[in-house]
Amino acid sequence: VQLVESGGGLVQAGGSLRLSCAASGSVFSINRMGWYRQAPGKQRELVARITSDGSTNYADSVKGRFTISRDNAKSTVYLQMNSLKHEDTAVYYCRQDHPDGNMWRVYWGQGTQVTVSS
User: Fold this and answer.
1) Is the CB of residue 45 less than 8 Å from the CB of residue 38?
2) Using CA atoms, how far apart are residues 86 and 1, in angstroms rounded to an integer?
3) Contact between residue 88 and residue 47 where contact means Cβ atoms under 8 Å apart
4) Please, what are the averages of pLDDT over each run of 10 residues along the chain (118 residues)?
5) What are phi and psi of 92, to 5 degrees?
6) Which has the closest alpha carbon to 19: 96, 76, 87, 74?
7) Contact between residue 88 and residue 66 where contact means Cβ atoms under 8 Å apart
8) Using CA atoms, how far apart are residues 63 and 57, in angstroms rounded to an integer?
9) How far apart are the first and last CA of the chain?
10) Do 50 and 58 form a contact (C-beta atoms < 8 A)?
11) Whose CA is closest to 109, among 20, 28, 9?
């Protein structure tokens, strides 16, 4: 399994970025996909997650600003980030949860840096 993130960068507060995560090595459509982030000195936290049937959930801090989506034909998950704030600055990681019987196999991407200047 390989997860490759892209789309990070430097943006001014109030701006937008779109992250992409291209997956390979498994049947993408059955996987639960998520975006997590880790700021310096803080624990990694869930940002948004999307299930195989398209159900989504978001961290309270990003509700109304971020949108997660998936394109099963391209084996890609996206995170559209609008109205970015300085506190959104972090390394953003893509995560794949692959169902395996009664457990999940978890895979992580390498991360992409998002820096929001205030």
Assistant:
1) yes
2) 32
3) no
4) 96 98 91 97 98 97 98 97 98 96 95 96
5) -105, 130
6) 76
7) no
8) 9
9) 37
10) no
11) 20
